[in-house]
Design goal:
heterotrimer; A: mainly alpha; 16 helices; B: mainly alpha; MetI-like fold; globular; transmembrane helix (chain A); membrane (chain A)
Chain lengths: 318, 296, 586
């Protein structure tokens, strides 16, 4: 997008002829890949038709009942269900917003890491901080259970022996600060891994800019502020727009694992709710309807964020 | 040089914070690890906390003895290496192509690509397409769908756009084709992001078992993650049956859940290869080296 | 330019054509009749060419080729390799159905999936080409009613597409030596407290309190609890609280319809909506609430999984077990030798739910894929699994290894068997397939389904199929805890005690020639949403601070459940049960 001037200045007649050929040549080179996209991402969308049927696998659609928009409205059909949806969406928005707020943390981490001059320390930090990413949520939970369980949990034992509390408390079954706790677990698990992209972006910054800044007598903070941060902003904004589009897709594994009766009302994000309603596994019409609605919301958010980006930064992402 | 040797207040804070965070990342892993090599009985009672007790390796022996472990490891290695190469090459090249303003329908095709990230057609249509393409029990099923990944392409495009464009422009005027420009000029410039994609994609391939679960019934194509998943799942599927029968299915000892120690052992076995390979990639993240090389 | 603009369309077309070309499936080969027919018309299946059959088992918790001695057995007898496709994974049944090919042998598929598969033409009709008549002699001999039931219910009175599981006839409980549910206490502690009689379920609470005071610490020094529950088995309610119903002769299923939210009496035309004030489910919630008030309920119950609980049982942290199969975790040879262990401690009001024998077969059906190339060989294999020899060998291994017949023709476990049955890691001799015992063990290996009920009598030996019920096993020296229990109770097994005291409610099998009515999709949606509320509030109620909170949570639960369509679900389910199972009593 920063092409403008150089492009314009080279548009000689020869160049133009070159371009006419090249614009199709460019497309042709991309074409095989676009075909793959079409096959693996667009063709399956034919299955969206299931959303309008009482579809059962194995039975052709021609023999299935057409139900129109029944599955689309099923989740909002009465007062109690609507209030359930409100609750679930509130959780989704809260956790997603916290997730977006904390998305600057990997940036900060990446900057801090690249400011480390001791090579082996840097390597150790960079490697070990990715470890949580590889531990499944099930195991994260078993570790959390070891730390926080009432019966012999590490934290309760420590607090009790310090005399700070009389009775052990069940922290995992607490309904307090659920959103924050979930966000923190997510940050812990994804920080080191997510920072890799920013580390790569920092690596790509032209060293001459740093040299020039140094010549100007800029301090380290000023170098970070004037060189590093502008250098990784494009990456950050792209990821930000993508995550805004993912606002309603929290995934469910983490929440499913950490959920229990006490925190359910606060932990139940949309994906978990849909799963908990328990019929996605067998009711394909309903499951597809949910997918479709989610896809449209995501696309709407994507273009909204893209438009905002254009308005604010003068650049579009997609 | 004087500035370098000085340890500033910023450094102290920086090192401390990083060290503490590294510790919180490392300790759980360490905790899980010592539980895999300690007496399983003590471990299941939650008595192993800071150091291993009664060290033994039988958990690892047990996992390594799962039938087909070696073959599955090879398949996993194969899909990881080939899949990663394909993904990296395709993402790099496509990401570069999409930076070319003059590409026919560029905006449309780019959006055509990007929005697929938010599509979810569901299990059955996906399965039917894969089946109709002849990708059941086919090694290509591990590779073809992974070649084009919108997210990586976006990363590359963003990265290329933030590099100095003058280099490629000058080369193009000299009559170099797109392939040459990509190979000679762009590739060296974007090594860090390609390394990032390689890591992401390799880990993705290595950890994937879902495709095997649905698309493969031929044990020669089983991946390591799949056989390990299957091994662990023998326990979790018990819960599923119990849910359906309201607890009225009788269990015998063989159906008791896999001990957490075995579960953890599996994680260790899967993670260690990643840990061994990752530092190798880190050399691509050293500030400034690549740009210097191009200019030099 | 115009032409060029059509590129995308052109490419899309090419793709579509390619896909549909590859979509054309190969035509089916018709089966050849077996070549090797012996002298008296018997086929020697082992002489047939080697084949690999795809077994789609919804019940299997394993995928891949059947390993171990069971694989060897099937290979030797039929020259068949079994490749097991695990159907229990979410979505696996659906994709397999959608693909139009379920495999050669289908294990454990029932309910709506089964009727859908028939509708979709995915299952083979056994009456075609006299397949059943020719190769299914044992099935016809041992399960004629089940075949007929299937013909009536699913085959319009002509075709037969499958056969149910756990088929049996006769009165009384169909369980083995133990029932599925029951109140089990630490026998040693109970005796130390003078073995007080227990009248109602609530009477366990003060007793457990005393036991907890008597044994405040577990083997590893942790606090003991009366109860330790887990939530990962919960479907539409708290499974553990619902077990209270089974203690009183009620179950969430009437044995015929796919129930869930009504508790149906096993042997009377009576049902309780699950949230009724007087329902045994609500009593169960109150029971655990009281237990928690008394400090008897493990506070981690909410957040732990079954795996954690089974570790706690192992450690002796829990004093009460709701299921007999939980007790072996603590009743190890070391513990029982020291006199410590769980045993059944009944209460007077109990009326344990028992599934009676069902001649029509249970809901985990055996069926054959319509696209199989070897219908006769699949049928022969299935037929063998319905034969007395097939059941004995399929469950307890080839004769002569783990079991044998004594001089009187009665089955006994061999020395090897005594080891193998209690330790799956016992190595298997190479001639029987090698590996370890548990590789091949299971319900017909990894297929994981039964044919005839195991407590049925094997006509060849006059003893039940289940080795735990063989006279030789029942009379084997019991461990000290078991011995003490047997001496006190004057019976050998749990089941005997229940039957002797007339404390068992045996469910009746029902058949009216029709399949159960399918649950409409909207009822299903409502049921799952209601279930979610019940599950959540049940746990909150059990852990409520006081009675007032318990009651207000209960009100909240009722309001929410009703708002989500609880009454409609209950009415629909009650109507099904009244129209079918309850007609037995008229």
């Amino acid at each position: 997008m920063q092409v403008g001037p150089s492009q314009a200045s080279t548009s000689t007649p020869i160049r133009e002829r070159f371009q006419i050929k090249s614009k199709h040549w460019l497309f042709l080179m991309a074409c095989p890949f676009l075909v793959l996209v079409f096959i693996f991402s667009y063709l399956p969308l034919g299955g969206w038709i299931y959303a309008f049927y009482d579809y059962r696998p194995g039975i052709p659609l021609s023999k299935s009942d057409f139900v129109g928009f029944h599955w689309f409205t099923a989740m909002f059909s009465n007062e109690v269900q609507r209030s359930e949806m409100v609750r679930v969406l509130r959780n989704t928005f809260a956790i997603s917003s916290l997730g977006i707020l904390t998305s600057v943390l990997p940036v900060i981490f990446a900057i801090m890491l690249t400011e480390v001059r001791n090579a082996s320390f840097k390597k150790i930090v960079q490697t070990f901080t990715t470890l949580p990413n590889f531990i499944s949520w099930v195991l994260v939970y078993s570790f959390a259970f070891m730390l926080f369980s009432v019966d012999g949990g590490f934290l309760n034992n420590v607090l009790m022996s310090l005399g700070w509390i009389e009775e052990p408390t069940n922290i995992l079954a607490s309904n307090q600060h659920t959103w924050l706790a979930m966000t923190l677990w997510g940050v812990w698990k994804g920080l080191g891994w997510g920072a890799i992209m920013y580390i790569a972006a920092i690596t790509g910054i032209d060293q001459e800019l740093y040299e020039a800044a140094k010549v100007d007598g800029a301090s380290r903070f000023r170098q970070i502020w004037h060189v590093t941060i502008p250098g990784i902003m494009p990456t950050f904004f792209v990821l930000l727009v993508l995550s805004i589009a993912n606002f309603i897709n929290n995934g469910m594994e983490q929440y499913f694992i950490f959920a229990n009766a006490m925190n359910m009302s606060n932990i139940e994000v949309l994906d978990l709710y849909v799963y908990n309603v328990g019929i996605t596994g067998s009711n394909f019409g309903f499951a597809t309807a949910v997918s479709i609605m989610k896809s449209f919301v995501s696309l709407f958010l994507l273009f909204l964020a893209n438009g905002l980006s254009k308005a604010v930064r003068g650049e579009t992402i997609i | 040089m004087a500035i370098r040797s000085k340890i500033s207040f910023f450094d102290i804070i920086n090192y401390t914070v990083l060290a503490l965070f590294t510790l919180t990342c490392f300790f759980p892993f360490y905790y899980l690890f010592i539980n895999t090599i300690s007496n399983n009985d003590l471990s299941s009672r939650g008595l192993v906390m800071f150091y291993p007790i009664e060290i033994h390796l039988s958990n690892y022996a047990q996992v390594f003895q799962i039938p087909g472990f070696g073959q599955a490891a090879l398949v996993s290695l194969g899909r990881t290496v080939i899949g990663t190469l394909l993904t990296v090459a395709a993402s790099g090249f496509l990401g570069y192509l999409f930076t070319k303003q003059e590409m026919w329908g560029r905006r449309f095709w780019y959006r055509f690509l990007v929005i697929t990230m938010y599509f979810n057609a569901g299990l059955i249509p996906w399965y039917l397409i894969m089946r109709n393409l002849g990708l059941l029990n086919n090694f290509l099923a591990y590779l073809l769908p992974a070649i084009v990944s919108p997210f990586y392409i976006i990363l590359v495009k963003t990265y290329v756009e933030s590099t100095p464009i003058s280099l490629q422009e000058s080369a193009q005027i000299d009559g170099a084709g797109y392939f040459t420009v990509f190979w000679k000029i762009i590739m060296p410039l974007i090594t860090p992001i390609l390394a990032t994609i390689a890591i992401f994609s390799a880990v993705g391939q290595w950890n994937q078992f879902y495709d095997t679960l649905f698309l493969v019934t031929d044990q020669r194509l089983y991946t390591l993650q799949f056989i390990l998943w299957r091994y662990l799942n023998e326990a979790t599927s018990v819960a599923e049956i119990m849910r359906q029968t309201g607890g009225s299915t009788r269990l015998d000892l063989s159906m008791m859940p896999t001990a957490t120690s075995i579960r953890t052992t599996v994680t260790m076995i899967v993670v260690v290869p990643i840990l061994l390979v990752y530092p190798f990639f880190q050399r691509f993240f050293v500030k400034g080296i690549m740009i210097g090389a191009v200019k030099g | 330019m115009l032409i060029k603009k059509k590129w995308p369309t052109f490419i899309i077309l090419v793709c579509l054509v390619l896909i549909f070309v590859t979509a054309c499936s190969k035509s089916n080969q018709t089966s050849n009749n077996p070549a090797s027919i012996g002298e008296n018309g018997e086929v020697d299946w082992s002489q047939e060419p080697e084949v690999t059959l795809n077994v789609f088992s919804v019940l299997a918790n394993y995928a891949g080729p059947q390993p171990g001695w069971f694989a060897k057995l099937v290979k030797d007898k039929f020259n068949i390799n079994l490749n097991i496709i695990q159907g229990g994974v979410e979505g696996r049944v659906a994709t397999q159905m959608a693909s139009g090919d379920l495999g050669d042998l289908i294990v454990g598929m029932g309910g709506k999936d089964y009727t859908d598969a028939i509708k979709g033409g995915l299952l083979l009709d056994w009456t075609k080409d006299d397949l059943l008549e020719t190769y299914g002699k044992n099935i016809m001999n041992f399960a004629p009613e089940a075949l007929e039931a299937n013909r009536q219910q699913y085959g319009d009175g002509t075709a037969i597409y499958g056969i149910g599981h756990s088929i049996g006839s006769g009165d009384g409980p169909s369980e083995g030596a133990e029932m599925t549910f029951g109140p089990y206490l630490r026998w040693d502690l109970y005796q130390q407290l003078g073995s007080p009689t227990i009248k109602t379920l609530d009477d366990y609470l003060p007793l457990l309190k005393q036991m907890q005071e008597l044994q405040p610490k577990s083997d590893s020094g942790k606090k003991t609890y009366g109860f330790s529950l887990w939530s990962d088995w919960d479907g539409e309610f708290s499974t553990l609280a619902k077990v209270t119903a089974q203690f009183h002769g009620y179950s969430e299923s009437d044995g015929f319809n796919p129930g869930a939210l009504i508790l149906v009496k096993a042997d009377e035309p009576d049902y309780q909506p699950i949230l009724d004030d007087e329902s045994y489910y609500m009593k169960g919630l109150k029971f655990y609430f009281d237990a928690n008030q008394m400090g008897l309920l493990d506070p981690d119950s909410l957040t732990q999984t079954f795996g954690d609980v089974s570790n706690k049982f192992k450690d002796g942290q829990v004093l009460f077990a709701q299921f007999p199969w939980l007790t072996p975790a603590y009743n190890t040879p070391e513990n029982t030798a020291a006199g410590k262990g769980f045993a059944l401690v009944p209460f007077e009001e109990q009326n344990i739910y028992s599934s009676g024998f069902n001649p029509y077969g249970g809901n985990w059906l055996w069926s054959i894929g319509a696209k199989t190339k070897h219908p006769e060989r699949v049928m022969a294999l299935l037929d063998w699994m319905f034969s007395p020899d097939g059941i004995m060998e399929g469950f307890w291994g080839p004769k002569g290894l783990a079991w044998d017949l004594d001089d009187n023709g009665k089955p006994v476990l061999t020395e090897y068997g005594l080891q193998a049955m209690y330790n799956g890691d016992t190595p298997v001799p190479e001639e029987y397939g090698g590996g370890i015992w548990s590789d091949g063990a299971g319900n017909f290996g990894k297929l994981n389904n039964t044919t005839l009920a195991l407590s049925q009598i094997n006509p060849n030996t006059g003893e039940p199929y289940d080795y735990k019920l063989w006279t030789s096993e029942l009379t084997r020296d019991p461990d000290p805890v078991k011995k003490s229990w047997q001496d006190t109770m004057g019976v050998l097994t749990d089941k005997e005690l229940f039957v002797k005291n007339n404390q068992v409610a045996v469910s009746k099998s029902f058949f009216n020639g029709q399949a159960p009515v399918e649950e409409p999709s909207d009822i299903k949606l409502k049921r799952s949403q209601v279930g979610k509320v019940i599950k959540e509030y049940s746990w909150k109620m059990m852990f409520a601070k006081d009675e007032a909170e318990f009651d207000s949570l209960k009100q909240e639960m009722l309001e929410k459940a009703k708002g989500l369509g609880y009454d409609e679900v209950i009415n629909w389910q009650a109507e099904q049960t009244t129209n079918t199972v309850f007609t037995i009593y008229k």
